[in-house]
Sequence to fold (338 residues):
Amino acid sequence: LTALFLASSMAVFAQSKKPISQPLVSHIFTADPSAHVFNGKIYIYPSHDIESNTKQNDDGGHFDMKDYHILSMDKIGGKVKDNGVALDIKDIPWAGRQLWAPDAAFKNGTYYLYFPVKDKNDVFRMGVATSKSPVGPFKAEKEPIKGSFSIDPSVFKDTDGNYYMYFGGIWGGQLQRWKTGTYEQNGKLQDDSQPALSPKIAKLSKDMLSFSEEAKDVKILDKNGNELLAGDNKKRFFEASWVHKYKGKYYFSYSTGDTHLIAYATGDKPYGPFTYQGVVLNPVDGWTNHHSIVEIKGKWYLFYHDVQLSGKTHLRNVKVTELKHNPDGSIQTITAYK
Ligand code: FUB
Fold:
């Protein structure tokens, strides 16, 4: 499996030509950009990649991050500010290692930072931290969110004021360990002929600090209404959930992981089911692909990352480019290199 992983990652690197956009910052490595507009300003909540010299493996041990820095800018193309350390792993009482892709939300004067980190038993859980400022510093709650597991929280505020967390990731993201509903250290992925593991959704409680319901499956179907199969790795969910709403439809986008695509599926309700539609972003340089999709002043943007600055899969840099919906609502596929 590892040989396959390395071979596929090399193939991805070999594809690159001239990038269509430049890294937003170059003094630190950043990845997994969750972008939001709060009070008319753009804030990006990324992972902060560092060189920890942990050996690369299929569980992503080399993504050994220890804090978050929030980036901000007044407009697309404007100066990007690094607002310093917003949350440090040492200030999360229950955390063990690996601060992975975060997201943020705002409600009633408080900003909420949601993050996945392995607990002291090496099991990924989701945490939440609060601040009166969009850039922190954030104060972490003493315990992980009850009923949370796996990685890549993404919080969507619906137009009716409800907030939902989408989450999950297979392989190193441990979703396969929760297949039966309870934790199984040796939980395996589905066989190729079985429906793929589903990402999860849970409505957030009014105080934004917990789930108001047990997490449910987010079903992704093909055009015939059948669930995507685990063997369909060019389409099935791997990690990096994101939801945006466009013309009344819900767009669930995600990474296909080992095939390195950002794919999307559409539905009529936040809970889905979602029907697979196509590719948002072709593979970028580096193994991972992770994004967010945001409307800013009437235009839509894709925030994403690649490894232009380092050439190394675990030292990434965030970028942004415009994203276009066609008149029928489909998304024009983006290739990040000319
Ligand atoms: O940044 C660590 C992990 O890599 C994220 O949680 C995944 O989505 C992948 O981008």
